[in-house]
Amino acid sequence: MTQEAAAARLADGEKHLEAGEWEAAEAEFRRAIEADERSALAYSKLGVALVHQRRLEDAGQVFSRAVAIDPKYAPAWSNLGNIYRETGRTDQALDAYQRAIAADPDYWIAHQNLGGLYRQMGRMSEAIASLRRATRLSARAALRPTGAGQGRRMGCLGGAALWLIVLAAAAAIFRAYG
Q1: Residue 146 burial by Cβ neighbours in a 10 Å radius (0-12, 13-18, 19+)
Q2: CA distance 130 to 80
Q3: Which candidate among 22, 55, 77, 119 keeps its CA 20 to 30 Å from the CA of 88?
Q4: Predicted model pTM
Q5: What structural domains does the chain harbor?
Q6: Mind listing the pLDDT tens digit of every residue in the chain (178 residues)?
């Protein structure tokens, strides 16, 4: 198959993700991988569909494959960090988020996820710094138009998660110092 076929499957998979049709999205992303086995994007999107089905072990393997194909693909690193965090592997989550940021310093979702992890670890000053950076980068990204065929980078958690994390960090600070 061709990269055009993979792109068509990716677009169809995205439509299914947006509609909450996780199994259909999974099927399309698997077809995209059949069309282009070297597509880190297709593997990463498959991982997102698997996360929505709560198949975290499978998703972790798929995100790992995505970063093996393209070690500079920040969304896959960030999502892999989410898997590690969800499964209690804090040190691995920290490493994955840091790799996402190293791959793309402007990828606000990785900063958001890192801030949430720092908060969970009780490292409040680092949490606040990461969440502030995520907020600045997110605001800047919202002002930039997306290119043709590119959607907003919302990650597994979605944009509302940023505000929930910021509110949780503020509440924790208030309790600690208030």
Answers
A1: exposed
A2: 18
A3: 22
A4: 0.79
A5: 1-70 (1.25.40.10), 89-178 (1.25.40.10)
A6: 578 888 999 999 999 999 999 999 999 999 999 999 999 999 999 999 999 999 999 999 999 999 999 999 999 999 999 999 999 999 999 999 999 999 999 999 999 999 999 999 999 999 999 999 999 888 877 766 655 444 444 444 445 555 555 666 666 676 667 5
